[in-house]
Amino acid sequence: MAPRLPSTSRSLPIALIRAREGVMAPIREMLADTGITEQQWRVLRVLSEYGPLDASTLADRASLLFPSLTRIATTMREKGLITQTRDSDDRRRQFIRIAPAGEQIIDDHTAQAAQIVAGFRETLGDAQYETLLDLLGRLDPGARS
Amino acid sequence: MAPRLPSTSRSLPIALIRAREGVMAPIREMLADTGITEQQWRVLRVLSEYGPLDASTLADRASLLFPSLTRIATTMREKGLITQTRDSDDRRRQFIRIAPAGEQIIDDHTAQAAQIVAGFRETLGDAQYETLLDLLGRLDPGARS
DNA sequence: CCACTCTATTTAACATGTTAATTACTGTGA
DNA sequence: TCACAGTAATTAACATGTTAAATAGAGTGG
Question: Which positions of chain A have pLDDT values less than 50?
Fold first, then answer.
């Protein structure tokens, strides 16, 4: 029963980090000339898909911690990528919506981003790509199974 | 041929982030009382497994960027978790080795860490756990397939 | 109305991620 | 030996991750 840790070469956390790096590298490269980060890209993607959202929901869907979102939103507002408005019913709450400049970035890069995703899908094959997403989902405690 | 991005709910990068968060949360919790971070734990694990390493190799095996390792190593040296020595042959190069206090942290937490890993393996099942590691490996451009 | 509690968000402090520039040292060829 | 290219590591600057504390507004029972 001697408890043994797997070699770091077969460590799940490290494998996740490296895979993420492998997947994000081309996306970061794509975004390099736009001056936005991968997290800002994620915020734009979520807003573009779901429409205006309150900050909590946005943070959740973009997988950002709240303090990170606060800073990111400030940056993005200053860049004119989003707009922030207070909820008049509950003035603690805030709504965030994508601005035209933000939409533009999405429009300009959707095709290329889709191509990058398609490349990974092809690398693994459709079936295994879906398998991977399912397995990853089972490691996410937030996912309602 | 309209290029379409997948919904963010089926996005590979987001799935990787969430899975990593799910896997790391219990490990961070385990480390909370030691005062070391998950990255410092990774450094200790690699040093413990491979013995003394030069900084480049250590950064590579722990999946840390070099500037991060520089800061982390400084912190860990000040805490007495590692020692750093210059290579006398090539004085640019540096060797890093784990110190007794570092060994102690590894020893104190190996059992619990192994149990956490075992939990995830059980969640997915042995076969799917291995499948996951293999699929993740195929997304890592650094992995020689 | 008021103390109290809860919730949404922000701020603070420190650690790491990321890219670019810089420093220190090594090896090489003129 | 000296200028120069290359390598190992550090430093700098900015963005995000992470946890804890602080603010601000909303809701509730007395």
Answer: 2, 145
Domains and CATH numbers, chain B: 24-133 (1.10.10.10)
What pLDDT does B124 receive?
96
What ipTM does this complex have? 0.92
Q: For residue A96, which phi and psi values (nearest 5 degrees)?
A: -120, 130
Reported as a pLDDT band with limits 50, 70 and 90, residue B5 is confident
Amino acid at site B102: G
Chain B window 49-108: residues with CB closer than 7 Å to nucleic chain D are: 54-56, 66-67, 69-71, 73-74, 84, 90, 92-94
Nearest-by-CA chain A residue for B49 = A7
Q: Which residue of A has its CA nearest to B141?
A: A22
Instruction: Provide CB contacts within 8 A for A107, sequence distance 6+.
Output: none
User: Closest residue by Cα to the C1' atom of nucleotide D20?
Assistant: A67
In this structure, what token pair is assigned to residue B81?
């978790």
Residues 6+ apart with CB under 8 A from B121: B129
- Chain A residues whose beta carbon lies within 8 Å of the beta carbon of residue B21: 63, 140
Of A11, A49, A139, the CB nearest to B22: A139
The neighbour count for residue A51, using CB atoms within 10 Å, is 9
Enumerate the residues of chain A whose CB falls inside 8 A of the CB of residue B113: 5
Predicted pLDDT at A81? 98
Q: Which of A67, A23, A20, A76 is nearest to A45 (CA)?
A: A76
